[in-house]
Amino acid sequence: DLKNPKVAIPIVLFAGLLWSFGPYVVRHIDQPQLVPWQYLFTRGLVIFILLNLYLYFEEGLDFYKNYFKVGISGVLGGIGLGTAMMTFIWSITNTSAAVTLLCLAAMPFITALLGFLFLREKISLTVWVAILVATFGIVVMAFGTGGTNSLPGLVFGLASALGFSVFSVTLRWRKETPKFTTVAIAGLFCFLSSVMLILNDSQFLSSSKNEALFATHGTLVCAGLILYSIGSKNIPAADLTLLSLTEVIGGIFWVWLPWLGINEVPATNTIIG
Predict the structure, then answer these.
(1) 128-149 burial, b if ≥16 CB within 10 A, otherwise e?
(2) How many CA atoms within 13 Å lie on the side-chain side of 189?
(3) Alpha-carbon distance 240 to 175, whole Å?
(4) Statement: residue 148 has pLDDT above 70
(5) Nearest to 47 by CA among 29, 22, 23, 27
(6) What is the pLDDT of residues 10-67, one digit of tens each?
(7) DSSP at 35
(8) What is the pLDDT of residue 93?
(9) Closest CA to 183 of 79, 43, 105
(10) Which residues, in sequence order, are CB contacts of 196 under 8 Å at separation 6+?
(11) Which pTM value belongs to this model?
(12) How far apart are CA 135 and CA 116, in angstroms?
């Protein structure tokens, strides 16, 4: 528990910064559009293992008892986060990293609506202004979207934002629910979904390079989710997702900067958005 609630703000900002390296990692994967399930298989397994190791070092051998306290909020949160993870990779392999990341800018608006409907959390005027600015950015970006594969990427990106918003609201729903166990359930959900869909193909793993990148992304996501969950007890759901938008800003720049090797130049509308 954080003794000073204000410390939660930089913690959540840093969580978003960690996530922002995700698109950069994905862009180094060889033909990611051909191995989405192998990606989710490894990433989900890494998240599940790391979260349980974290819980073991935090609580000892009794950490498994957290799974008996999950409840409906933990299950819904895990499924929401797992869905966000799955639709994220489908989005970023069907459009530019910038479009995917700016779709995630819809999270504060969706979360504010869900938080008000289900938790009766009041949203301050400054947060509403920031949410409206982010929403306007998405509209500008959407009008500049071109190419045959951009629309599916846009839809999957918004679906990822919705899934993460559901996860954020469940973190605030029942504060006694073990937060890290919810994240572990999300990793398990991705892992099991991938297993069921890969069974016909019988190829669970990709190349050694891809597997290393899958695991790296899973580690970044896991570390960010631990920080995000720590901050969730002291910050309203809408503010949480608004602060985590450092993921959007950082993610666009990491794949844009030429010296990092990708040089994926965003469209003018994307920059404005």
Answers:
(1) eebbeebeebbebbbebbeeee
(2) 19
(3) 15
(4) no
(5) 22
(6) 999 999 999 999 989 998 999 888 888 899 999 999 999 999 999 999 889 889 888 9
(7) -
(8) 84
(9) 79
(10) none
(11) 0.85
(12) 18
